[in-house]
């Protein structure tokens, strides 16, 4: 993969990485608030493994909300770690975000495809909703992968700078 030199053609990858981490924190906080403020009957939770009765019991006990909240708190933690890594120029602190980011991209692709296919196969006519989910999800995935590539490029730059060593750097960068 070729490294990106700029984020959105105007900012450095360092600035793009900080913006990406900040967006991750903001979106996670908004999602946590939405999960707990929204009426829980508007959100459906199905495991596809257990019976519908068990899924309903889990939802009544707020288990899905708790699991999502814990996951989003870890996302906030990893995005905060990414900001610290950029400011301190430590590549190994960026690694959790880089690994989690590509795993989340794969999960997002599977989720978008599964949701849109489920709507396409539904007995009621939900083709417009399915198409909107598919197109919107793929656009979101493209933006997410671009931001991941920005962070990964900055990770590689910082890692290369660390490997060069202190005395091999140019005097003005010490």
Automatic annotation (TrEMBL):
The chain crosses the membrane at residues 21-38, 66-87, 94-121, 127-156. The keyword Lipid metabolism does not apply. InterPro entries: MARVEL_domain_protein_3 (IPR053077). Keywords: Membrane, Transmembrane, Transmembrane helix. The keyword Membrane applies. Signal peptide: none annotated. This is MARVEL domain-containing protein. It comes from Leptidea sinapis.
């Amino acid at each position: 993969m070729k490294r990106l030199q700029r984020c959105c053609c105007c900012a450095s990858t360092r600035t793009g990485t900080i913006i990406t981490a900040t967006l991750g924190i903001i979106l996670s906080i908004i999602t946590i608030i939405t999960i707990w403020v929204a009426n829980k009957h508007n959100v459906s939770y199905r495991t596809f493994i257990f019976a519908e009765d068990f899924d309903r019991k889990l939802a009544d006990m707020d288990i899905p909300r708790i699991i999502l909240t814990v996951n989003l708190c870890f996302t906030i933690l990893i995005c905060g770690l990414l900001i610290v890594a950029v400011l301190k120029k430590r590549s190994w602190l960026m690694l959790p975000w880089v690994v989690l980011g590509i795993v989340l991209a794969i999960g997002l692709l599977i989720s978008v495809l599964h949701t849109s296919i489920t709507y396409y196969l539904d007995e009621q006519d939900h083709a417009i909703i399915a198409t909107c989910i598919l197109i919107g999800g793929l656009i979101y995935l493209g933006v997410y992968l671009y931001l991941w590539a920005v962070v990964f490029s900055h990770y590689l730059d910082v890692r290369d700078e660390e490997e060069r060593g202190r005395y091999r750097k140019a005097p003005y960068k010490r």
